[in-house]
Amino acid sequence: MRVGFRVDASTKGGTGHVMRCLTLAGELRTLGAEVFFMCRRRPGDLVDFIQESGYRVYEMTGAYNVSWKEDAVRTIHILENIGSAEWLVVDHYGLDARWEKAVGHHIKKLMVIDDLANRPHDCDLLLDQNLYRNMEQRYKGLVPERTKLLLGPAFTLLREEFLQSTCNRKWDGNVRRILVSFGGSDPTNETLKTLKAIEKLNVPLMVDIVIGSSHSCRQDIARFCERKEGMQLHVQTKEMARLMEHADLAVGAGGSSVWERCYMDLPSLIIETAANQREVISTLQEKGVVFYLGKSEEVDVNLLSQHLQRFIAEPDLIKKALETGKHLMKDHKPYGVSRLMMGDGSDG
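^ UDP-2,4-diacetamido-2,4, 6-trideoxy-beta-L-altropyranose hydrolase, sequence as received from the core. Prediction below:
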C-alpha cells in the first residue's frame, strides 16, 4: 500500500501537524506501507527532519502563500508524476472540501486530520483525536454521510516510544523534576519565560527543556541553561517518553502533546498559546486533569513563578490530577487509525 501526506510546518504555524503525521507514517510503515510526503518550503518547515526520518519528500513549488486552487494543482502534478496512492492524508488548516474534491479524483481514498471543525471536508476518513464536550456533533453537516469519523483520545496518535513505555507512576508528593515543553516552534517563547519563573523559586530542581530545531530563540535558551545548574536542554529529541516518565510535573501548551502527557500520567500546568487550544484546555480543566494558568499574554514570569510555588507546596493538587488523568486514556487504541487504513476491518 502507498500512502501520501500533504502537510506543512513553519516557525509561525508550528510543527504539530508534521509531528502527528510522522507518528501515523511510522505506524503505517511498520505495517508495511510505502509512505511519502508533500510539503512546502518555508522557515521551520521540518523537511530535512522528515527526510532524516527515512521518508521521501516532494517539495511543493510556487509562492510562500498560495490559494487552495494553486495548492491543488501542485499536489495533482506530483501525484501524476509519481503514480497512484491508496491513501492521501491531509493535515492542513488552509485546505478544505474544495481542495479535497479537486485532489480526490487522483487518489483512491482521502483522510483528513483536523481539530478545528470550522470548515467542510470531503473525505473518506476524518481523525480528530481531541476531547470536547460536544465531540460527537462537532462535524455534523461538515462531512458527507460516507465519512468515517475517528473522534477522541482513544485514537490519539502516539509514537512508538510512548506505546513501548512501561511507566507506572508512583509519586511521593515531592516535585524534584520538571519538564518544560511548548512544542517545536514556541513562537511566543513560553519556554524562556518558564525557565525564568523556575529560577525565581530558589528551589533545587532538575529541569528538562524540550524545543524544536526551528525555535527562534534556541541560542538564548541554550545560554540560559548553560548558566543554571540542573537545567538540561533537549533539541528535537526522540526521547520524550523517557523525559515524561522521569518528570513529576510538566509545564506546556494545550496542543497535541497534551495527550502524550495524559498517556504518561504526567500532571501539567497549561499556558494557552493559540486560540484553537481553548476548547480542549477547558474540557481537560473541567475534568481536573490539567491546571490552566491563562493565555500567553496574561501569564508573566512572576505569576507563573507563583503558580509553580503553589503546586510545589501543595502536593495534594498534583495527586488529584494524577488520579483523575489515569482514566482518561484507558480506552486508547494503539495503531487503531493505521490498521483501519491498512484494511484490517477494525478501528481498535
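The mean pLDDT is 93.
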